Amino acid sequence: MIEAEPRPRETPRVALAHDWLVGMRGGERVLDRLARLYGPTDLYTLLDSGVVLTDAIAACRVHPSALQRFPRATGAWRRHYLPLMPWAVGRLRVAPCDLLISTSSAVMKSIRPPDGVPHLCYCHSPARYLWEQSADYAGGAGGRLRSLGLTLTGPAFRRWDRRTAGRVTRFLANSAHTAARIERCYGRRAAVVHPPVRTAYFTPDPSVEREDWLLVVSALEPYKRVDRVIEAARQGGFALRIAGSGSQAETLEKAVANVPNVQMLGGVDDPTLRDLYRRAAGLVFPQLEDFGIVPVEAMACGCPVAAFVPPIDDPRGRGGAAETVTDDSGVFFDEQTPGAIAQAVTRLVATPPRADACRTQAERFAESVFDAAVTRHVEEMLAGG
Predict the structure, then answer these.
(1) Structural domain of residue 330, as residue ranges?
(2) Helices 293-300 & 355-362, crossing angle to 10 degrees?
């Protein structure tokens, strides 16, 4: 990994803000690119677990909120502190800078910039568990307690979330799907800048032959619908490997105990993940995501995708896969049912898209594309645009 180099002194001072630093997922990949473009710099966050995520993030001066001092806040109890998050964000004080960039899928878009300083928010989504998918977060460990908390605090939290959108000068959305949700939830327009995907790392390997099993790469959470893919594999008889961890891990392990064609791999490192993408017959993507980096990583390795895309009149929107996967790089199913998933897998395996077409599609989302787009917006804002 390339170390972030200090910025020349004459460059504008750009401060960063991020919901929490507790693990490495898609949001942290975006933060890493921003830290490479504008760091080392001040980085404000609700919580910092102390784990080194990337060299560029670690080089920043991290300022955690008062929530950091609460018991187990950086671990399993993080979501239980949801009612305190507006208070914690409100107590963060950003040092003098020329521009504040926040990355948010929870509350960090509500951080207050210094007087007169523009605030650019890269929004992965208005908080799903507050606005549209609260029922989906009621499953897994602690689900009933989470559900009760969301029921009690949700209305007031949504009012606060919408009101504090006024602290953002310009919104960037990770997809057109998210831009529509930002307008619906906050009454604000957002420009679309797709997240950076490591297409230079996730590459095809012509010497590796594809095998006859399907792959799921996902956090094991209720809304990811991994259970539906397991049932599709049980009904359809296709071999399935699942990489990921989460609150549903134990439940899903029990579900596959008597399904010999399904293998749970747990969390995997990047080299293992790349090897899985290179060898799988295809990736199954059953959830509705705001963007979804996993399908693009798979396509970058030449792996085709069977993706869930709701009907065009679905009130939830069509999701990020409608923007990232094409007929040349995958197939679609419009119901999150085992039967629909099994049928899509059959079509994918019978007529697999070409690996080079998958790769070409993935390159539209390369890190360099993200860097150029963000740089343009930052320059416009620093110039007073």
Answers:
(1) 213-365
(2) 130
